[in-house]
Specification:
346 residues; globular; four-stranded antiparallel sheet; alpha+beta; eight-stranded mixed sheet
């Protein structure tokens, strides 16, 4: 086993992501683009953690255990997203995720800290917690992204348990899909309780999480099993730094959800952060990113879902999506289980 410092030293020697503001607690004020050292963070709303979809509530509660003790945002987001990764009822994230059309459950994840360090894995099989492997990539190698068999090999070398990820329920759903083998992602599904279910029969989704700790430092995490019945080898936006997730500790962080191809084409999360740097509120930045997708491909946008979620340096948050049905969870010192659903472009 080796660590990042040793690896770099040896190498050197050898070479010589619903228009909403934080009005759930306070109206989000626009940030003016000033130098980070001079930015006013006295009127802050942190520590805070936000994440996509209703399964973000349980994830946030786990992340809050770290934040309320004054812990680091990076530790909080890793712990938080591991909850849906382990949830056998969640078919869009982690070990119970629906497989690709060949029956392989492949997982993607990325993580990014306040220093700009980041790590990711894509198309990884047999490892239940890709977010922790992504962190190991960040901290123990000079690389950002490991994929496929290489990612699995690295995980095993780091002590992660190798296990079968295709659960009986997911396998049954896959075999039922094979009867017609038609691929038609649906924007949102109704679950048995009548609510919107991300990750429904043919849908896909992810959990993206952003946290600001008590010191005002920001980190983010994103993890998914990707599109159900996707082509083997397909990778969406979730493990791509700048697409599914981006953090700039001087400005804020952003994450995305929905059809990853369109997020990648627009480098969506990076765009949201840069728009906040220019002075837009989190809500306005997310809305502008969504509108760019619609403007670039209006016909495509009518039939897909893409949503962005963002937080700025003050702990103010906002979100916006193409279609109705997108929700996100918020957790701070005042409330640990707030779920917000709001406006969208259509």
């Amino acid at each position: 086993m080796y660590n990042r410092r040793k690896f770099i030293k040896i190498s050197a020697a050898g070479a010589s992501l619903a228009a909403l503001s934080s009005s759930g607690f306070a109206e989000a004020a626009q940030m003016k683009p000033t130098a980070a050292d001079n930015r006013d963070i006295t009127a802050n709303n942190f520590p805070i953690v936000i994440s996509t979809w209703d399964f973000g509530i349980a994830a946030n509660k786990e992340a809050w255990k770290t934040l309320e003790k004054g812990g680091r945002a990076l530790d909080a987001v890793e712990a938080g997203v591991k909850i849906p990764e382990a949830d056998l009822k969640n078919h869009s994230v982690g070990k119970a995720g629906y497989p690709d059309r060949d029956g392989h459950v492949t997982l993607d994840a990325c993580i990014m800290d306040e220093f700009g360090n980041c790590g990711a894995v894509a198309g990884m099989e047999y490892i239940a917690h890709p977010i922790s492997v992504a962190r190991a990539v960040m901290e123990k190698t000079p690389h950002v992204l490991l994929v496929g068999e290489g990612a699995t090999q690295f995980a095993v070398e780091q002590g992660f348990k190798k296990e079968k990820l295709l659960t009986p329920e997911s396998e049954k759903a896959w075999k039922n899909w094979l009867k017609t083998a038609k691929y038609a992602p649906v924007i949102n599904f109704e679950n048995t309780q009548g609510g919107m279910e991300p990750g429904g029969k043919n849908n896909h989704d992810t959990i993206g999480m952003l946290a600001v700790d008590a010191k005002g430092n920001i980190s983010g995490a994103c993890t998914t099993s990707g599109m159900a019945w996707k082509l083997h080898g397909r990778v969406g936006d979730s493990p791509i730094i700048g697409a599914g997730l981006y953090v700039d500790n001087e400005v804020g962080g952003a994450t995305s959800t929905g059809v990853g191809e369109e997020v990648i084409r627009n480098v969506g999360s990076f765009l949201v952060v840069e728009l906040m740097r220019q002075g837009l509120s989190p809500e306005a930045a997310c809305k502008e990113a969504v509108n760019r997708i619609i403007k670039r491909k209006p016909d495509t946008a009518k039939g897909i879902q893409v949503g962005f979620l963002a937080v700025n340096k003050k702990g103010e948050y906002g979100a916006y999506a193409i279609q109705q049905g997108f929700s996100f969870a918020v957790c701070n010192a005042e409330k640990q289980d707030l779920l917000i659903k709001g406006k969208s472009a259509y």
